[in-house]
Design goal:
Distance between the termini of chain B: 59 Å
Helix content of chain B: 25-40%
Strand content of chain A: 15-25%
Order of helices and strands of chain A: EHEHEEEHHHHHHHHEEHEEEEEHHHH
Structural class of chain B: alpha/beta
Largest interface: A-B, 27 and 27 residues
Strand content of chain B: 5-15%
Radius of gyration of chain A: 20 Å
Order of helices and strands of chain B: HHHEEEHEEEHHHH
Shape of chain B: globular
Strand order of the largest sheet of chain B: 1-3-2-6-4-5
Oligomer: heterodimer
Largest sheet of chain A: 5 strands, antiparallel
Number of helices of chain A: 15
Chain lengths: 337, 208
């Protein structure tokens, strides 16, 4: 790695001040930030300073206060996956945290880092800025559009980018109706992820330069609510998702009274599947109704175009992701019975 | 062919000799005989890399021994362990947190040492694979089972698997094959010896 400095602040305010100049970047678990600093995927000047959030006390707590579960942004994914309250009442989140990467990375990686992670596209992530794409340089080509797009968006582009958001915990938080607290503001999960700001290629969220996620709050689910998370990846044990899905469903009298379903890794942003929610609402859960909801969730999904340029690549395209996503939504709903 | 070519030229002699030395080093690494000074030192004395302890030196408690090292903020824990402390059982594979070869235990939890800054491991208990095989006559049960069951091929990934196995068995003393595969998912054996390794770990848990 190149010689950078590390700032070890002891308060969130001090960390925000250190970030304000624009020449610094956050490091928490480090598994994402160090990956990209080593890869040098970006043409931008790398940060002079890393601001280490681990030196700030009190950001790792997981506690239930009244009707709200509060998770510190620096709680590790292992801690979340093993927490008894989360496992019993917020099952989808525990399952999602357990599905992230490998045990070693979960021991280091934090939930704050997981929801703020960069988009996934093998052209964008390639070492040494091998593919200067639209996200990195103005008027650059979209290599996924021209080349192999088997893992890219099935819901079209956002700001001409077809990369996907690979977070596993994001759809669980979205479906559970979480709030994300920063040092400046509290966001609903539905407004937290945002389209790429062309001035900052790393950005996948609405956060300002000196804004730091400090806590995640999840309202207690209503009585009779169950939740589930499903992930499909090429390697079951340790991989980014091809598609993942979370469902949170409240049953009363055998029928669904409230459904909340979210998908990720299918689009530039985590995606709430409102059509699927409407489809399952008021019905009993069985294989047929769950499948109908899965089909509804993928309304409007389209495989990326196969252009003459990439047919010579023997590419498989990303049409298969649509089928996988339908099945994952179905399975997540069936697990909420 | 000229006369002088009949004998062994100096260059060829040096080449052969270095191959033998290289081969010997690899062989003894597999058997755990590489004498690492700090590893054989069981008195918990302070060793120092650099002028002396204190000042700008940071404390690394590796395998129960205190090391004082003057570090740069951008150094990874793997760099300190391998290059500054000379504990070379821990390998550097992908340098991207994908292969598991660099696994060490920090606070008893397995982590990838390439993905942790050295400054984050200061003052924390660190365990590397050296702790499993201080010398040939004193192999830890895990290292002995890996050797006896030939749970390795080239051996490059073995230290990572073994130290993660130590953490796994502490948490779950007799795991079944599914649990082993889940808990050791973060390791790659590029020679494709994964199933032998996982079966060996199950066997260790069953007492053999």
């Amino acid at each position: 790695m190149y010689p950078f400095k590390v700032n070890n602040p002891t308060t969130v305010n001090a960390a925000a001040q250190a970030l304000a100049g624009g020449k610094a970047a956050i490091i928490a678990g480090g598994t994402e930030q160090l990956f990209f600093l080593k890869a040098m995927h970006s043409p931008a000047t790398p940060p002079e300073t890393l601001v280490n959030l681990k030196s700030i006390p009190g950001l790792t707590d997981i506690k239930e206060e009244g009707n709200t579960l509060k998770i510190g942004a620096l709680a590790t994914l292992t801690a979340i996956a093993n927490n008894d309250i989360i496992k019993s009442k917020y099952t989808a989140l525990a399952q999602a945290a357990k599905a992230v990467a490998s045990p070693e990375l979960r021991n280091q990686g934090t939930i704050g880092g997981n929801i703020c992670q960069r988009v996934q596209c093998w052209y964008y992530k390639a070492d040494n800025n091998l593919f200067p794409c639209r996200r990195k340089v103005s008027n650059g080509p979209c290599y996924a559009l021209l080349g192999d797009n088997r893992y890219n968006s099935i819901f079209g582009q956002v700001n001409t980018c077809y990369a996907v958001n690979p977070s596993d915990t994001a759809p669980a938080l979205l479906a559970l109706g979480a709030k994300i607290v920063t040092n400046k503001k509290t966001y609903n999960a539905s407004e937290f992820w945002s389209a790429t700001n062309t001035s900052d290629i790393e950005k996948t969220t609405v956060l300002a330069l000196d804004e730091i996620v400090t806590e995640i709050q999840i309202p207690a689910p209503a009585a009779g609510t169950k939740s589930a998370f499903k992930k499909f990846a090429l390697r079951k044990s340790f991989d980014f998702p091809i598609v993942n899905a979370a469902a949170v469903i409240t049953l009363s009298g055998g029928t669904v009274s409230k459904a909340s379903i979210a998908l990720n890794a299918v689009h530039n942003l985590p995606r709430k599947a409102t059509a699927a929610e409407d489809s399952i609402n008021g019905k009993a859960i069985n294989a047929d109704t769950a499948w109908d909801a899965g089909v509804a969730a993928l309304n409007g999904a389209n495989a990326m175009p196969q252009t003459p340029a990439n047919t010579t690549w023997d590419t498989i395209g990303n049409k298969y992701m649509i089928q996988i996503a339908k099945v994952l939504v179905k399975r997540a709903i069936l697990d909420c019975r | 062919m000229t006369e002088e070519k009949k004998g062994i030229s100096r260059r060829e002699f040096l080449k052969d000799a270095s191959l033998i030395v290289g081969g010997a080093a690899v062989g003894s690494t597999m058997l755990g005989t590489v004498a690492v000074a700090s590893c054989n030192n069981n008195n918990n004395t302070t060793t120092s890399v650099g002028p002396s302890g204190g000042g700008r030196h940071s404390l690394f408690k590796v395998n129960g021994i205190d090391h004082w090292v003057e570090i740069e903020p951008y150094w990874s824990l793997n760099f300190v362990i391998r290059e500054k402390l000379g504990l070379t059982f821990t390998k550097m594979g992908c340098d991207r947190g994908e292969c598991g070869h660099c696994t060490v235990l920090v606070n008893d939890l397995p982590i990838y040492s390439c993905m942790m800054l050295a400054q984050d491991a200061i003052d924390k208990p660190i365990e590397t694979a050296e702790i499993l095989s201080p010398d040939l006559t004193n192999l830890d049960g895990i290292a002995k089972s890996f050797r006896d069951n030939a749970a390795f091929q080239c051996g490059f990934c073995t230290a990572g698997w073994m130290i993660a196995t130590k953490a796994l068995l502490k948490k779950n003393p007799s795991p079944n094959l599914d649990q082993v595969r889940e808990e050791l998912a973060g390791h790659l054996c590029i020679c494709s010896g994964i199933i032998e390794i996982c079966q060996t770990v199950v066997k260790i848990g069953q007492g053999g």
